Amino acid sequence: MSDYVQMWKDLGMDLETHDNLCQVLPTAFGDVYLSQENRPEGMNFWDFVVSEIHGIRPSELLEAQKKGQKVFGTFCVYVPDEVVIAANGIVTGLCGGSQFWVPGGEKVLPKSTCPLIKASVGARLDRTCPFFRIADMYVGETTCDGKKKAWEILGEDVPMYIMDLPQMKREKDIQKWAEEIAAFARKVEEFTGNAITPETLGAAIHTINEKRKALARMYEARKSKVLPISGKDALLVMQIAFFDDPVRCAQMTNKLCDELEQRIQDGVSVFPAGTKRILLTGTPLAIPNWKLHHIIETSGAAVVCEEMCTGTRYFENLVDESQTTLEGQFMALAQRYMKTNCACFTPNTGRIDDILRMAKEYQVDGVIDVNLKFCCLYDTEGYTVEKALKEAGIPVLGIETDYTDTDAEQLRTRVEAFVEMLG
After folding, report:
1. For residues 259 and 42, is the Cβ–Cβ distance under 8 A?
2. Which of 57, 68, 114, 266 is such that its CA lies 20 to 30 A from the CA of 257?
3. How many domains does the chain fold into?
């Protein structure tokens, strides 16, 4: 990684502790990613981004702040990036995918809190994530009880805005979400000092739709019998998409997809013919959580799709671009975002429909339902997911795990047995 020490020092980061993370990440990335054979050349961009993960994008954000732009740190796919961009703001995801940050979170949160929440809080409180240091405002939502309490802690010294997500999907709930988006827009206008107009919001909607189309194009390539990219590499693209500039993300993803589609035409696969195809479903896999993908893809199978927030939920469904008034655009945003099938909703039959549809579209041999430990929502919904898959005759394996490597060999044994059973 280039020399960003002065930048980190100016951000008030704990340099000694952060150095420990910087020393571990390259080895972990090398073991998981650079050990792969026949990777698409287009992945060089994402390899570079990871090598500079706490440097290159943070430095861009700081330069933007010097020019008067505000940076909004978000945690969830329900927060509409379009609103922030329409006010000339910048959206960045916030760290939360490493065991490195969990002990810091456990200083103020119960150990029975999910590792994603503990890691996010720990990354902030221990001052080891530049994105948490840079963000002018955090934007949370009410998708789970653990998050709702974490927002109170994170909001102690940084402005915290919370969007109240409805827990059902009736017409009145969609209307309520449109009103929440409108209220968020007013807060963003106030915070940035910039007005949101139908023109600026329309342009922002188009920008994010183009990013979604690019990511969807990558997933379309993964439906092929000829697998031009590994599940690990596709996951990395998705994880970086939460942090990167949306225009650049779309451009680089489309460039990668040009190569993937050519590979399909040429019959160039990163897996041997007959490799078992796995759909992953469940809780999100925030960077640098690559554990399960690595285990699966070194156990004789390939991950071809993720029905997750770091997967299809992030890009499926476009926002209607035909609306010309703010009221109409807020409703179009609400209608699109409420199609995302998080386990926080009841009933949540749409998620079951999605999983069954994807199992067919991606020609999967089996499904692995993975839940982060202590995530009550997805753990409980696992019953419904597994029941529906068994009724459809689709093999399914339920897994509960966290960010540690202590269960890696046990998971490998279970995954290998599952893959062998598929054979």
Report:
1. yes
2. 57
3. 1
Q: E strands of 99-159, at which residues?
A: 137-141
For the chain, 423 residues long, give each residue's pLDDT as a single digit of tens: 568 999 999 999 999 999 999 888 999 999 999 999 999 999 999 999 999 999 999 999 999 999 999 999 999 999 999 999 999 999 999 989 999 999 999 999 999 999 999 999 999 999 999 999 999 999 999 999 999 999 999 999 999 999 999 999 999 999 999 999 999 999 999 999 999 999 999 999 999 999 999 999 999 999 999 999 999 999 999 999 999 999 999 999 999 999 999 999 999 999 999 999 999 999 999 999 999 999 999 999 999 999 999 999 999 999 999 999 999 999 999 999 999 999 999 999 999 999 999 999 999 999 999 999 999 999 999 999 999 999 999 999 999 999 999 999 999 999 999 999 998
Distance CA 173, CA 44 (A): 43
Q: Which of 174, 3, 141, 122 is nearest to 72 (CA)?
A: 141
Q: Which domain holds residue 249?
A: 5-26+33-422
> Which run of H or E residues covers position 59?
helix 56-66
- Round to whole Å and give the CA distance between 96 and 186: 28
The answer to whether 250 and 213 are in contact (CB under 8 A) is: yes
